[in-house]
Amino acid sequence: MKKKIAILGSTGSIGKCLIDIIKKNKRNFEIILLSADENYKELLKQAKFFNVKNLIITNHKSFDTIKKNKYSKKINIYNNFNSLKKIFKKKIDYTMSSISGIQGLKPTIEIIKYTNKIAIANKEAIICGWDLIEKNLKKHKTQFIPVDSEHFSIWYALNNIDRNLIDKIYLTASGGPFLNSPINKLKKVNIKQATKHPNWKMGKKISIDSATMINKVFEVVEAKKIFNVPYNKLSIIVHPKSYVHAIIKLKNGFTKIIVHDTNMRIPIFNSLYSSKRIINSKKLNFKILNNLDFRAVDLKKFPLVRILKILPNNTSLFETILVTINDKFVELFLDNKIKFTDISQKMNKMLNLNSLKKYKKIKPKSIDEIIKTNKKIRHDVELLTKK
Prior knowledge:
Elements: E1 3-8, H1 13-23, E2 29-36, H2 40-50, E3 54-57, H3 60-66, E4 76-78, H4 84-87, E5 94-97, H5 105-111, E6 117-120, H6 123-139, E7 143-146, H7 149-157, E8 166-173, H8 191-194, H9 204-212, H10 214-227, E9 234-238, E10 244-250, E11 255-259, H11 265-272, H12 286-289, H13 318-334, H14 340-351, H15 354-357, H16 367-386
Parallel strand pairs: 1-2, 1-5, 2-3, 3-4, 5-6, 6-7, 8-9
Antiparallel strand pairs: 8-10, 10-11
């Protein structure tokens, strides 16, 4: 029997990687739904190849354009995720949620009821709305698998391990393009330099987040929520080769080190198939293993890592504020309106404002509350930067 699946964000890097994996065993899958924001050409190409009958494209201009295509007359095309109840008559086997940004939160939560397994690659959804996600996972008896390489590695390593045995979890960071650059050179960094990651081919936004190391701050927050461990059991360690993805020290004396090729194919493949399936991967690289080169984080070069010290242990709207402020300042840098070093300086300054501290005590009760907070803080950042 064919495995029925849905891919939210099928034209992004994660979505395309999953599509590529499925192509090799096309006859074993039936794709019920594909979604994208703007890239209607790639979406149509995917739909034709897999004979997909349902598409969601959220950008209004792209939606209007795709509706004029001859192929579109043969299938169902929707402009938003309110159509999920029309698409799914019963639960499907697997969903990949890889829509980037806060806009991925609502569809991620809403599709949980329609799928037996959900693999989530959306940082913002987990950081801002984990309690809501977890509540729906339990309610609809849906299995969750994290897809980010670090979190998948931790998830894999902790299989059948009592959480009380965890002594410390280390998430590795490459250090990005400026790991070995002098601090005084960072003020003149341009967009091309900041988005040139040494190990991974990624989009501009995530590449900037890697360069400032805020992506690791986000990953620590995600790990705290997903694995229900306190911040004092989570740590960032620099590992330039990105070969080791997680280190888990256990109280029974053992330490687990998870290694895999520097690509997302392995966690995505293993989220789709059981661990008994075989994937072609490179031979173990002993040259790297003999020189893992772990380093402590240089807090002068990566000051955003200090944010971990001001984050509340309880779930709150402050995490939404953290994500929103970073999103906005990265946008400003990519628009050439601020310097690269302004991202961390302005973020640290804004996050310490007394007016935002109240959000540390407010637990998000709904998707709308998170989205409303996101819009308000984006507006506040715009006003602040104009001043």
